[in-house]
Each structure stands twice: as structure tokens, then as C-alpha cells.
């Protein structure tokens, strides 16, 4: 998958600048293809239109391993209808359309054929939401719940989200995320893997689901066995939030594991047709309902007497709105990303003071050289995270620790970052010392040329920052830069003897000179 953004601007008329700007997202989910059109202003949205059409994506993937031709044809037809509607909205205004898909499409054997079929038909490039972006979306949903329940900001809160293919658990302590885990345990994955059963026999179906999910539930229990249990569990997800009126019809009583178990047993006693009627679900989605209940029930039972909250929100609409708002950077989310990176650094006993100082100096250089590198805010975040994690490999062995750091980062959960982001951060840690980025390194070789350039630029800045902190003593409090001919002068205040830094820069400054064309000179200056 290329890193090209899946966004296409429809034709803009001369009157566009006077009309309200609109955004649209077409989302290919596990059991439907949805369209949301809304007006955006900052981090708020106003829904203009929302449409949903069922498609058996999860059924095809988890039963056959591929998308059938009939399902492809149906997706193309739905796209025809949606694009016709969007052309009407695009008349006289600016309309930006994103085409996104659930990450379970990565499990289909004919993914490239499917994506190319849709691209040829409509010109939109499908972008798959990876695990990192999905986690960001979950965080955005949870953040609103925490804001509405201020008491939760003082407690330990576990957020459980049973998606179509995976279940994600986020642990918050006093409003800060401290742990994130993802498990191959999804509602659709479970329902479709079990296949058609004798619907109406409650004991048989419930037993089959429990047997199927047992291994992953045991893994969750193992992962959390040495962690203090949460005070509250927030359960979010399409199936469970739709069932909330049945779980808590009065909206004024606490939900218990007994409530969830009773509803699961009631659903299991019904035939497939009865379920579709009672739950207002179609054939593509109804098989995921019982697994979703039992997955969340099993997780809640692991943590005993924790209070259970299921938000009274329309998950589907909220999720689509989050897809649009996820394109806007939020300081709160960036703060959580950095906080989680610091937790990972501490886990591998990296030198915290050194890492923070390299991050501080790296961001100073990034900001001072913005006209030179021409990178964006998100790139600054990647540099910051890489600086925090660049020495975690010393936990394995100080020798070749840059390679060990790359390995640890590639095999760790980094909250709020996409897989592509994680790979770039790992490469920055890999190339913070020694050789320059090279296509002999498989991860680097697989990048698009534009992303290779990003890695080269950011690695060059990271090396300079690391050289400035060669003493591991946080000697440099502030710096500034100026360009004189073909030389970049870094002005260091308050230090007269910079011998150590000069020696380190002689070893680590070459990449910066090769990429940007400027030799580096360190210039001590007196404090103003």
C-alpha cells in the first residue's frame, strides 16, 4: 500500500469560496459501506447526510479468505450511488472525500484486486485504517466519555473495544493512558469463524463462542495479572452500544455482568430471523452480536467488581465523525503519544534524562530549521518519539544498540501511531548513529522515495541533537542557529568548553552535511 492520501477534491466552482466547506467520508466496514457528509469547523462537525448499505465483507473474508466477485460488484454499485450524491453536494462548494476501510480487508487474499477495481471504477484510492489509527479513534471516543464523567479522571479505567477483527484494551490511570494491548479477538472474526450453527440452541452457540475466544481471554488475563484491577470498565463498540436500550432500558441503573449474560442467553435462544427482527440487524451483521457480548462479558468477568459503563451514544455516527476529525492534530492526543513513548522507554530502562534532552534539542533544531527541511508538524512528532526511544536497545546490549532499538520499536505497541509511523521511528532509532540510511535495510528499501527523504532529514537532525548531548549531562539549555554561506552555525549559550560536543559532531554531523549541504560549526556564546 502506498502512502498516498486517499483524498480526492471534487470539482470546485467559482462560488466555492463563498459556500460552506464540506467533508465526506466513505467507509467500508465489516458489514456495511457507509457515507457521511458533514460540515466541519475546527474539531466540531455538523452531520449533513448519512447513508448505510449492507455488504458482507467480514463474511467473505473470515469464511472464504477473499472478497467474492458478487461482493465486489455490490461495492462498486454502492460507490456509484454515493458518488452520484456527492457530485450533487459538490456543486457550488468545495467537497473533500476520503475513502477508508476497516483493517480486516488486509486479511483478504485478493486485496490488491479489490482495491484496484474500486479505484478504476471511481478514481478514489482506498486507504486501510491500521491498528494505530484505530486506537486513535477509540481514544477520541473515550475522551468524550471521560469529559462527561469527571470522577473517572481520578480512577483506573479500562476501555474495551471488540472490533470486527481485533479487541483493543486501553488502561487509563488518572486520565492518562498507561497501557495499550490488541488481541486477535474480533466479533465478526469469531462469529464467521464459527459459521452457521443451530440458532436457537442457547447452550451450543454460547459454548462454541466461549471455546473459540478462550485462548485470547487467557492471554488478556496473563497480560494484566500483575496490574491492579480497574475501578471502571468502559465498553464501546457498534454491537454493544446498539444493545444498550436492552441492557439498560431505564438509563439510570448500573450495568452488571449478570445483565450482559442474561441478554446473551436471550439472544442465543432466538432463531436467526428473530434476532434480525429484534435487533434490527441485517444478515451481514447479525452474527457478530452474540460474540461481541460474550467477548466483553468475559473481559468484564476477569476484573471482578469493576463498574461497567456503556456510553449512550450512536457509535456508528460518532465513529464516522471521528474519521473526519482524525485528520486534525490535537495537542491532547500528541501529549498522550509522547507519554506512552516515555512509558516504553522506562520499561527498557533507557536513560530518561538523556532521552528527554535529545528530544528537547532535536525539537529546537527542527523548529529553527523549518525553512530548510520543510517538514510538517507530524514529522516533528515522529522525531520527538524517536528521540525518546533511540537508546532503548541498550536494554539488550549497548553494543549495536541502534539495531536493537529498531527491533524493540518494531515489535512494541506505540499508542496512537500508524504502522507506517512506527516503521519510520524505528528507522530513525536505527540510523541515529553509524551508517547512513541505505536500501540494504529492508524496511527502508520498502518506503516510498518521499518517505525515504523524510527518514534522511529526520535522522540527520536526530544525530546532531544526539551529538550535542554526547556528555549525557544536559549541559546545553538553549540554542539558536544561523546560516553563513555553506555553514550552519549552532549557537550554544553559556558554555565555554564544547570540546566533547565538537568531537561528537565530527562523528555524527556528516549525514546532515550530505543531506542539507551545510557543514556544522558549534559556536559558544555568552548568556544574554
Main sheet record: 6 strands, mixed
Computed CA radius of gyration, to the nearest angstrom: 26 Å
Number of helices in the DSSP assignment = 22
Low-confidence stretches: 1-19
The strand count comes to 14
Q: What general form does the structure show?
A: globular
**Could you give the distance between the termini?**
51 Å
What percentage of the residues does DSSP assign to strands (E)?
Answer: 15-25%
Return the structural class. alpha/beta
Can you lay out the helices and strands and say which pair or pack?
Blueprint: E1 7-9, E2 22-28, E3 32-41, E4 44-54, H1 57-64, H2 69-89, E5 95-101, H3 111-122, E6 127-128, H4 131-148, E7 156-162, E8 167-173, E9 176-183, H5 187-194, H6 202-223, E10 232-236, H7 238-242, H8 244-247, H9 257-268, H10 272-279, H11 289-302, E11 307-309, H12 315-325, H13 331-347, H14 352-368, H15 370-373, H16 377-389, H17 401-410, H18 419-430, H19 442-445, H20 449-468, E12 479-484, E13 487-493, H21 499-508, H22 510-516, E14 519-525
Parallel strand pairs: 2-5, 5-6, 7-10, 10-11, 13-14
Antiparallel strand pairs: 1-5, 2-3, 3-4, 7-8, 8-9, 12-13
Helix pairs in contact: 1-5, 2-3, 4-12, 5-11, 6-9, 6-11, 9-11, 13-16, 14-16, 14-20, 16-18, 16-20, 17-18, 18-20, 20-21, 20-22
Amino acid at each position: 500500500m502506498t502512502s498516498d492520501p486517499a483524498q480526492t477534491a471534487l470539482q470546485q466552482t467559482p462560488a466555492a469560496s463563498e459556500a460552506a466547506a464540506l467533508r465526506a467520508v466513505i467507509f467500508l466496514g465489516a458489514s456495511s459501506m457507509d457515507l457521511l457528509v458533514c460540515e466541519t469547523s475546527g474539531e466540531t462537525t455538523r452531520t449533513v447526510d448519512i447513508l448505510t448499505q449492507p455488504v458482507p465483507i467480514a463474511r467473505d473474508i473470515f469464511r472464504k479468505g477473499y472478497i467474492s466477485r458478487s461482493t465486489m460488484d455490490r461495492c462498486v454499485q454502492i460507490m456509484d450511488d454515493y458518488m452520484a450524491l456527492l457530485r450533487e453536494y459538490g456543486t457550488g462548494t468545495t467537497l473533500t472525500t476520503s475513502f477508508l476501510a476497516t483493517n480486516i480487508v488486509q486479511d483478504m487474499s485478493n486485496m490488491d484486486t479489490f482495491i484496484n477495481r474500486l479505484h478504476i471504477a471511481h478514481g478514489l484510492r482506498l486507504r486501510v485504517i491500521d491498528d494505530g489509527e484505530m486506537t486513535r479513534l477509540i481514544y477520541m471516543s473515550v475522551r468524550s466519555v471521560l469529559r462527561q464523567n469527571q470522577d473517572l479522571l481520578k480512577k483506573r479505567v479500562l476501555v474495551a473495544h471488540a472490533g470486527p477483527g481485533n479487541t483493543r484494551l486501553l488502561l487509563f490511570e488518572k486520565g492518562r493512558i498507561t497501557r495499550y494491548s490488541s488481541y486477535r479477538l474480533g466479533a465478526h472474526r469469531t462469529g464467521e469463524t464459527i459459521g452457521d450453527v443451530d440458532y436457537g440452541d442457547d447452550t451450543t452457540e454460547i459454548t462454541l463462542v466461549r471455546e473459540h475466544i478462550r485462548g485470547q481471554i487467557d492471554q488478556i488475563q496473563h497480560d494484566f495479572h500483575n496490574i491492579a484491577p480497574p475501578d471502571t470498565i468502559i465498553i464501546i463498540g457498534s454491537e454493544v452500544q446498539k444493545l444498550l436500550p436492552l441492557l439498560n432500558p431505564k438509563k439510570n441503573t448500573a450495568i452488571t455482568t449478570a445483565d450482559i449474560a442474561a441478554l446473551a442467553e436471550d439472544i442465543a435462544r432466538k432463531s436467526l430471523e428473530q434476532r434480525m427482527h429484534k435487533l434490527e440487524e441485517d444478515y451481514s451483521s447479525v452474527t457478530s452480536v452474540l460474540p461481541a457480548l460474550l467477548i466483553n462479558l468475559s473481559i468484564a468477568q476477569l476484573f471482578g467488581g469493576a463498574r461497567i459503563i456503556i456510553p449512550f451514544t450512536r457509535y456508528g455516527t460518532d465513529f464516522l465523525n471521528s474519521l473526519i476529525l482524525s485528520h486534525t492534530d490535537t495537542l491532547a492526543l500528541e501529549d498522550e503519544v509522547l507519554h506512552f513513548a516515555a512509558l516504553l522507554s522506562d520499561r527498557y530502562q533507557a536513560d530518561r534524562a538523556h532521552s528527554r534532552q535529545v528530544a528537547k534539542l532535536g525539537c529546537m533544531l527542527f523548529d529553527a530549521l523549518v525553512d530548510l527541511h520543510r517538514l510538517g508538524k507530524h514529522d516533528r512528532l515522529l522525531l520527538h518519539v524517536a528521540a525518546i526511544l533511540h537508546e532503548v536497545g541498550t536494554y539488550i546490549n549497548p553494543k549495536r544498540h541502534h539495531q536493537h532499538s529498531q527491533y524493540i520499536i518494531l515489535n512494541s505497541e506505540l499508542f496512537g501511531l500508524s504502522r507506517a509511523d512506527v516503521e519510520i521511528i524505528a528507522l530513525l532509532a536505527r540510523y541515529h548513529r553509524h551508517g547512513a540510511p541505505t536500501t540494504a535495510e529492508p524496511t527502508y528499501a520498502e518506503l516510498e522515495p518521499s518517505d525515504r527523504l523524510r527518514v534522511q532529514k529526520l535522522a540527520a537532525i536526530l544525530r546532531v541533537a544526539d551529538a550535542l548531548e554526547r556528555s549525557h549531562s544536559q549541559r546545553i539549555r538553549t540554542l539558536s542557529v544561523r546560516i553563513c554561506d555553506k555553514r550552519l552555525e549552532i549557537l550554544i549559550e553559556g558554555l565555554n568548553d564544547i570540546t566533547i560536543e565538537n568531537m561528537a559532531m565530527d562523528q555524527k554531523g556528516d549525514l546532515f552535511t550530505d543531506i542539507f549541504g551545510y557543514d556544522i560549526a558549534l559556536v559558544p556564546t555568552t548568556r544574554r
